[in-house]
Automatic annotation (TrEMBL):
Pfam families: LZ_Tnp_IS481, rve_3. InterPro entries: DNA-bd_IS481-type, Homeodomain-like_sf, Integrase_cat-core, IS481-like_transpos, RNaseH-like_sf, RNaseH_sf. Gene3D superfamilies: Ribonuclease H-like superfamily/Ribonuclease H. Residues 130-318 form the Integrase catalytic domain. GO terms for molecular function: nucleic acid binding. This is IS481 family transposase. Coiled coil: none annotated. One of its GO terms (biological process) is DNA integration.
Length: 319
């Protein structure tokens, strides 16, 4: 495609060709007038004689034939592996003995979307959405996390020593689990989390009352809450905690992707806090959590928000 300020735009080429074909200018005179080579002037004059003004536009640079193009049978095998097994270019290339860049070109030529844009279970393209204002939808979920035994677990000490610490507790009891109750705003990704002892209905109801108060203190009015179909969320206690002003929506069974924003928060939380470094005790890890949550809400750039922190999307939150 020609530059809009170039001398030989389609209009300029037409003028050049008409000077030669219709007005009888010589190639040298026309080339000097339009500041191009005589070969260029001859090319546009020849094309004008053959196709008229329609031939003055840019043509595709794609070759008419590609003798070294991947054969159709191989292309079909590549597409079949992508659709049926949802493999990436590298894995398909190693399986078929083809360079991954060749597989990538074939997938691009047939319009195959990236694996990150697809649902791994069904292969369907993921439909991304975002509510318009903070509070329009709050995603709520519980993440079950194993507690760290005193003295450190297997990440800090290795499998053998970590297993001994795990069983050498009071009355030979295991450390058990911590239940992280999370609430994430759909629009801003602002998160509120508490580490609680269980996932019973009374615990979930109490967590929501405190989470709702937290969002209200930031000027966010909650209108909808999305949860999975856990027993605690189907209880009357949780329904009463929501009240009549908040609409409760639940995901389809076995479809955690519907609650994807809080699921992605769970993954980020594990990668950047829970498993970011080896902790010696559970108390040490719990003490580090609030600092990480403040960093997530106020300073950590979110890729879905184009580098903004969640707090940047809440009106007047930063004062």
């Amino acid at each position: 495609m020609s530059h809009p300020n170039a001398t030989l735009t389609p209009k300029g080429r037409t003028l050049l060709a008409r000077c030669i074909v219709e007005d009888g200018w010589s190639l040298r005179r026309a080339a000097e007038r339009f500041q191009v080579s005589t070969g260029t002037a001859n090319r546009w004059a020849t094309r004008y004689r053959e196709h008229g003004a329609a031939g003055m536009h840019d043509r595709s640079s794609q070759p008419h034939t590609s003798p070294h193009r991947t054969c159709t049978r191989t292309e079909r095998r590549i597409i079949a592996l992508r659709v049926n097994r949802r493999w990436g270019p590298a894995r398909i290339g190693y399986h078929l003995g083809i360079h991954p860049s060749t597989v990538h070109k074939v997938l691009s030529r047939y319009g195959c979307s990236r694996l990150s844009f697809q649902d791994r279970a069904t292969g369907r393209r993921i439909r991304r959405y975002e509510h318009k204002a903070p509070g329009d939808m709050i995603h709520v979920d519980i993440k079950k996390l194993g507690r760290i035994p005193d003295g450190g677990g297997h990440q800090a000490l290795g499998r053998a020593a970590g297993k001994r610490n795990k069983t050498r507790t009071e009355a030979n009891r295991r450390p058990g689990y911590a239940y992280l109750h999370n609430a994430v705003d759909d629009h801003s990704r602002l998160a509120y989390t508490e580490t609680l002892k269980d996932e019973k209905k009374e615990t979930a109801a109490g967590f929501w009352e405190r989470a709702n108060a937290y969002f209200a203190s930031l000027g966010i009015t909650v209108r909808q809450v999305l949860t999975d179909n856990g027993a605690c969320y189907r209880s009357h206690a949780f329904r009463d905690a929501l009240g009549v002003a908040v609409k409760h929506r639940r995901t389809r069974p076995y479809r955690p992707q519907t609650n994807g924003k809080v699921e992605r928060f769970n993954r980020t939380m594990l990668e950047e806090w829970a498993y970011a470094r080896p902790y010696r005790t559970e108390a040490e890890r719990v003490a580090a959590f609030q600092g990480w949550l403040d960093y997530y809400n106020y300073r950590r750039g979110h890729t879905a928000l184009k580098g903004l922190a969640p707090a940047d999307r809440v009106l007047n939150l930063r004062g």
